[in-house]
Amino acid sequence: MALENKKNENFGEWYLELVQKAQLMEYSPIQGCMIIRPRAYFVWQQIQDFLNNKFAEEGVQNAYFPMFIPESMLKKEASHFAGFTPEVAWVTKGGNEDLSEPLALRPTSETIIYSTYAKWVSSHRDLPLLLNQWANIIRWDTKTLKPFLRTREFLWQEGHTAHASREDAEAMVAKALNWYREVCQDLLAMPVMAGVKSRSETFPGAEYTTTVEALMPDGKALQCGTSHNLGQSFSKMFDVKYKTNDEKQEYCWMTSWGVSTRLIGAAIMLHSDDKGLVLPPKIAQVQVVIVPIFKDLEEKKMALLSANKIVLQLREKGVRVHVDDREDKSPGFKFNEWELYGVPVRIEIGLRDLAKQGVTIARRDGIDKDFVSEEKVIDFVLNAMQDIQTNLFSRAKLFLDSSIIFADQYKDLKIGLEHKKLVQAYCCDEAAEEIIKQDTQATSRLIELTKEEGKCVITGKPTKSMHYFAKSY
Amino acid sequence: MALENKKNENFGEWYLELVQKAQLMEYSPIQGCMIIRPRAYFVWQQIQDFLNNKFAEEGVQNAYFPMFIPESMLKKEASHFAGFTPEVAWVTKGGNEDLSEPLALRPTSETIIYSTYAKWVSSHRDLPLLLNQWANIIRWDTKTLKPFLRTREFLWQEGHTAHASREDAEAMVAKALNWYREVCQDLLAMPVMAGVKSRSETFPGAEYTTTVEALMPDGKALQCGTSHNLGQSFSKMFDVKYKTNDEKQEYCWMTSWGVSTRLIGAAIMLHSDDKGLVLPPKIAQVQVVIVPIFKDLEEKKMALLSANKIVLQLREKGVRVHVDDREDKSPGFKFNEWELYGVPVRIEIGLRDLAKQGVTIARRDGIDKDFVSEEKVIDFVLNAMQDIQTNLFSRAKLFLDSSIIFADQYKDLKIGLEHKKLVQAYCCDEAAEEIIKQDTQATSRLIELTKEEGKCVITGKPTKSMHYFAKSY
Predict the structure, then answer these.
(1) ipTM field
(2) Which chain A residue lies closest to B328 (C-alpha atoms)?
(3) What domains lie within chain B, and their CATH numbers?
(4) CA distances from B54 to A306, B175, B249, B355 (A)
């Protein structure tokens, strides 16, 4: 039942084996598209709930815009769209007839949404306009499919806001990025670094792009969410104007921000091990599995009696419990299966446990089994779940922190990358970044602005831009 | 602020004016596609929550399948797909290259889902397989756009299940239909009739289709949800087989069922009036609006003090409250606006109310204003919300019941339809149905099987099939 590939030995194959055997995804007949199975889709629903709550607190409302974008509309803002053109899928036929104008399937929705905002915004009283949509996105990527991380269709949310001032837009960009940091860290137990993207990695049309990035066990960075300050470029393209308090016409300041189903892949890749999936309890569809151990029906009945008592109490506390009372599988088979599926806590109830008026509890994050007496089971499980959530985060945080090294020489940067580190280095401009990229395949993941100047590892010029370099997904 | 069109005078125009002015939808630049605005999308989210809870109780899990379906897969089951071919939109280009095979955008997902089920099902232990997906659907309809009711892209859920026996599949079909009855009646306050579709109205490839139908104020029926027993036709087409307990290979018994965002349109059309939107409290984004009435800032402060106390208490009870403290709008303007937006309960707080230590409360379903003393406000509001929910349902039920007439002669059927009734009549077969359709544009909405035989209104032949005829959306 365990995986054939090892996380430390052949990481790429291990991941592909994991996502299939743990029933997280299935390949589809369409090249580059995958099926998200319930165990993984459940994670997405938790992400949706988490963010919808944040949105509601801040007055961001959900809406839905068409997935089609007319070609003419795209041409209107060619500078933005040029970045997407090679990846656009086109609908050219409806029913038996050719369309008079090809329709793009949204690779992102700035154009369709902002052309509508122009109708809705006329006064400062209409601002801020804060909308989000949960939608499927199509990018006809020619690279190889990587389940969850790179697929031609994926699910995401995209927030699109219009504001009366640059400051309001900047505050919104920061707020969204903070939600993304929270969803990664507090829900998915995945530590991230937050910062600004370099010019060459900035969203087409944006003034600047902020990002949260996680580090995967193979030393590659993974962009988990981005939040863009679009300034007034889109409002000028689409004529999104408002009348100020003193009757002047001004262009709106806009932002957009999104996270996608790739977050599922990131969390899976980060936490799982050679036995299979490891899930932080908050995103596990089944948080606790109870395995009654029996040799005959009489024993089964006794074990189930005890199991059902625990189930009722745990459900009352909001815990998602499953009892695996199959008769045609051995306890050992069941243990392995639920470990493969990433269930955080396993409760075993056998005759020996019953005799001692307790149960045996095993944690998926690898700490030994415990015998727990009946009256302490519920507290023990609740604590274990909290502890697993924290433990997975701490473990990943330790890995991230220990992976960051500073390089003040270009050769150290290269050595760092060879050792799969996330390398901090001063870098003065796009040209220098490009040299590093060509040479090492690593890109600047984010920039930290420092108070003191440092020397660019390529040009030696003084700069305050400290970049984090890594290869990336 | 009130609508220019009257519901009783020019229903079609009234509906179009309503959905725009109440900010439920916006036209998009793409012909046949619309934008769902937050006030309407919120209704969809309530429908999602309602059904997701039912699904979870029954073990139906959410998943996500690609929106693309290869042409070759469609050809494989031509009998089913023939019904959709004229409405399929085709992707023929990805990036700058022509695709080797055109991809259909899903008009429904039986084919892609069942070809996958064939991989997942091998033993009776894999059954039942109960999945649902929330997705966007594309049908390149050539008829005119009708907001929510007929659009080329819409949102829906589609349940797809595989079972080990005909009985299990039949039970699932009935269960899903019952969920749809509940979502219509208990959430949307919209009474429906449930029954079986006639042969000519059956889903392509299904053994039979069950339906819930609502009656709109203009006498047209609206199909609100359908649940199909697919028998073994799809399992044979896609080779979805399982091994029985005694090692025999059998084809699965399958079902599919769905409701869409047209439900939003149905509820809106049914309940609203000449002042604008009327929403059952359960689906209203704002359930209670508080309008402080003031002439100066001192009065405003006093009214807000009282308002905020009520807000806190209502929020504690889970009520969605908004305080409209704008200074540049008159109370009258605000009353009209919130009536247009369908807020079920309005609380007015003026000096006169404060002096008497109470507030004035108005209900959107048209019953007079009440003065309510401070200590009774919360109970009054909670009761009012329940009462409005019930009242809207009862009102609609009365309309539905009084709209049903029985015709034992064809001329009575025609007179009934002219008077916008839902006409019960015996009808013996498809040919007879077709005559009625050609003659009156009315279709059989559903069939009730009666114990006693009656005479077909067209042929005079005895039959137990009592149909309900109406024009439809």
Answers:
(1) 0.96
(2) A125
(3) 11-271 (3.30.930.10), 286-387 (3.40.50.800), 404-470 (3.30.110.30)
(4) 28, 10, 32, 48
